[in-house]
Write a structure and sequence with these properties.
The complex is a heterodimer of chains A (346) and B (365). Chain A folds into two domains: 165 residues, Rossmann fold; 138 residues, Nitrogenase molybdenum iron protein domain (Rossmann fold). With 346 residues, chain A is an alpha/beta fold. Chain A has ten helices and 13 strands. Helices cover 41% and strands 17% of the residues of chain A. In chain A, α2 links the parallel β3 and β4. With 365 residues, chain B is mostly helical. Chain B is built from 15 helices and no strands. In chain B, α14 crosses α15. The longest helix of chain B has 31 residues. The radius of gyration of chain B is 21 Å and the shape is globular. The two termini of chain B are 36 Å apart. Classes of the chains: A alpha/beta (346), B mainly alpha (365). Chains A and B meet through α1 and β11 of A and α1, α5 and α9 of B.
Chain lengths: 346, 365
């Protein structure tokens, strides 16, 4: 009696699970068909098929082979900026913040691109599929200093493995690894762009500007050898990126810029200080403050940090994460060089 | 499909009710009222001493491991307070921790007395949900995530939500029973939580700010500008004190309470005001902190029994102790960083609450 009622109960509990599974099956089936019909339209519409097979191996070691070079590319915002700098206009862009107001897109015209996501992991799959991309570009961050990649988990910018599977049904996904040396990340971006049709001349022209900006940054750092603290802060405390773990600071440090880096070993990426321990990181002459979290007034309201010399001297600058490509980095380095020249050693 | 709810409800543990095995203990308690009564001032004094002790510990210990000598020097001579660690961090978070703990402890006791439900939490009437929603609106619309801006928004949101809950309940079946209030509170909370989730999920910046706030922390707060929260707390404590007699009569049941000449409306209004003001003050200062409001009254009840004259102050003192102890633990286990008191409380509070339930000493109210 008891067993049978238990069985009936569990069978009833199972029913909705099975129904749900069937529904999911339906929805994946339908999105798969819409995805394939989308790419069919792409290949039949373009004459690219004549140019032959296209193959690309991304930073995770995954090789994507298509019967033609991708014409329609969808991309996560940071890599879309890199593609745009080489004249490759993405058909769809998804970002971590609102793409329309993301200042990093200011130099480019993205009116032709569908914006299919403005928040991390929130991607409008139907809108993305409607743009019929041949390829989707996103990134992957290593989980440690040695560059270990968690290939079981979702790629950067994606909510979970399930969403990644949905994306894969729309178009193959390739990832750029954002870790280790900054120049390696830029080169990975270049390799993808060239594979997607950017000419060697375009890349060389971008490199010339980049090299000039890099040389200027090195000169500025030599003229005025000050210490720069790149940080994020909130009510819980103060976060300083470990110079070697963030590709951008690694790049600038390799060009001669000195960053606050009290504890390069230990946990990956962030060095975290409670407000009681803020004094440990008050050695910087310039603060590059992340545009998110606490801003200047909030820092001044923290008694344990208010006396910071850079904060008191007004040498604080809001700092946004730049994309890792020649053009973005050239302008970011020029900005940093002018900050360094305009700052005093305290 | 029809059988599902009944299958589930039969699996649920039976609702607490006076059972046969509980009766002897109740009789034993009743047999020795004089001894318990005599011990109460002593117990309260003991709790006060414990609060003083943990206050001292809270000033001495932190993620910055400065010696006790340096702390005492800094404490008595702020000019010698190196890096403002004592006056800039330890003192404010100790004072605010005491305040939040007392508020939540007392609010929890009033809430459990008002609803006669041992599982009632001070957030039951929508106060925490209202505060959360206001904070999220603040980040989303005004872009403010500063500690002070958040405090004001939380106070406003908590008050508005509570008034709405009260109005909904009053328009409906009235206030003689706490059930309409609890239902209205749950409904309004659910709506606010849904709206909060919507905003948080549609904007990464809001999510980031909300995530930090919602954990519940005493870090990065200063005593400047918390006057409003202090006022809320003070007035809330006055209302709670004024509600004590009613809480004792309400414990006999609403019908008996009316029979004894208790004005139910006044009793409910006073209680609701106390709960709202106290919880709003606590939430505004630290973010929504769970378990203190729920567990402090249970611990206090074991020390002083169910008379609210003793239970309210005891709950406040226990709440202050629990909150500060958890905050100190959080400060010490994070290395250079810290673990938020909200996280520590979730871990320890959960264990403590389970042990309370397991020992079967939860009072039936």
């Amino acid at each position: 009696m008891k067993l049978s009622s238990l069985l009936r109960g569990s069978a009833l509990l199972l029913a909705p699970v099975i129904a749900l599974a069937a529904l999911t099956g339906c929805s994946t089936g339908s999105s798969a068909s819409s995805g394939s019909s989308g790419s069919d339209a792409g290949s039949s519409g373009g004459a690219a098929a004549a140019s032959g097979e296209w193959s690309y191996t991304d930073d995770t070691g995954k090789t994507v082979t298509l019967d033609h070079r991708p014409e329609a590319v969808a991309s996560y915002a940071d890599y879309a900026i890199g593609l745009l700098s080489y004249g490759i206009d993405p058909v769809a862009i998804f970002g971590r913040v609102d793409v329309a107001t993301d200042e990093r897109f200011a130099p480019y015209d993205i009116s032709g691109a569908a914006i299919v996501g403005n928040s991390y992991g929130e991607i409008d799959l139907e809108a993305l599929a409607a743009t019929a991309p041949d390829l989707i570009v996103t990134g992957i961050y290593p989980t440690d200093r040695e560059g270990t990649l968690d290939l079981a988990g979702p790629l950067y910018g994606l909510a979970d493995a399930e969403q990644q599977a949905q994306l894969e049904k729309i178009a193959p996904v390739v990832a750029i690894m954002v870790g280790g040396k900054g120049l390696d990340v830029i080169n990975s971006m270049n390799r993808l762009a060239e594979s997607l049709g950017a000419s060697a001349d375009t890349v060389a022209a971008a490199k010339t500007k980049y090299d000039a900006a890099a040389a200027d940054l090195t000169a500025a750092a030599a003229e005025n050898p000050i210490e720069i603290t790149q940080m994020y802060a909130d009510a819980d405390g103060l976060y300083v990126t470990k110079t070697a773990d963030e590709p951008e600071t690694e790049l600038y440090a390799s060009l001669g810029v000195t960053f606050t880096n009290k504890n390069p070993d230990g946990y990956y990426y962030w060095d975290i200080y409670s407000w009681e321990n803020a004094a440990q990181v008050m050695s910087g002459d310039v603060l590059l403050l992340n545009v998110e979290g606490f801003q200047k007034d909030d820092l001044l309201a923290q008694p344990t940090f208010a006396s910071d010399k850079a904060l008191q001297a007004g040498q604080l600058h809001p700092w946004n994460q730049a994309a890792l490509d020649y053009a973005s980095q050239a302008s970011h380095m020029t900005e940093l060089a002018s900050i360094i020249r305009a700052s005093k050693k305290l | 499909m029809m059988a599902r709810p009944s299958t589930l409800s039969s699996a649920r543990p039976a609702a607490p009710r006076p059972s046969a095995e509980r009766t002897p203990r109740t009789q034993r308690t009743q047999r020795t009222p004089r001894t318990r009564h005599a011990q109460r001032p002593l117990v309260l004094a003991g709790l006060a001493a414990a609060v003083l002790a943990i206050t001292f510990v809270s000033l001495m210990l932190g993620s910055n491991l400065i010696g006790p000598g340096a702390v005492l020097t800094g404490l008595f001579d702020p000019a010698q307070d190196a890096g403002s660690v004592v006056w800039g961090s330890r003192v404010p978070r100790t004072v605010l921790g005491l305040l939040v703990g007392v508020c939540l402890g007392v609010a929890g006791a009033v809430m459990q007395g008002q609803t006669r439900n041992p599982l009632a939490d001070p957030g039951l009437f929508g106060v925490s949900a209202g505060a959360s929603f206001a904070v999220v609106i603040g980040v989303y619309v005004l872009g403010t995530s500063s500690v002070l801006g958040t405090l004001w928004l939380a106070l406003a949101g908590a008050t508005v939500a509570s008034v709405v809950v009260f109005a909904v309940a009053a328009l409906g079946r009235g206030l003689s029973s706490p059930v309409p209030l609890a239902i209205a509170g749950t409904a309004v909370s659910a709506l606010l939580v849904a709206l909060t989730s919507f905003l948080v999920l549609s904007d990464e910046t809001t999510l980031a700010a909300y995530r930090i706030w919602v954990v519940g922390s005493l870090s990065g707060r200063s005593l400047n500008g918390v006057d409003a929260a202090l006022l809320f707390a003070a007035v809330g404590l006055v209302f709670a004190a004024a509600n004590i007699r009613s809480l004792n009569t309400l414990a006999l049941g609403t019908e008996l309470a009316s029979g004894l000449g208790e004005s139910l409306l006044r009793a409910r209004l006073t209680g609701l005001a106390a709960i709202t003001l106290l919880t709003a003050a606590a939430v505004a200062i630290s973010g929504p902190i769970g378990f203190v409001g729920l567990t402090a009254p249970h611990i206090a009840r074991r020390f002083v029994g169910g008379d609210h004259h003793w239970l309210l102050p005891a709950s406040g003192l226990v709440g202050a102790c629990v909150l500060l102890v958890c905050d100190v633990i959080g400060r010490m286990i994070g290395g250079n960083a810290e673990v938020s008191v909200g996280v520590v409380l979730t871990v320890f509070g959960g264990i403590v609450f389970i042990s309370i339930v397991r020992r079967g000493k939860m009072a039936t109210l």
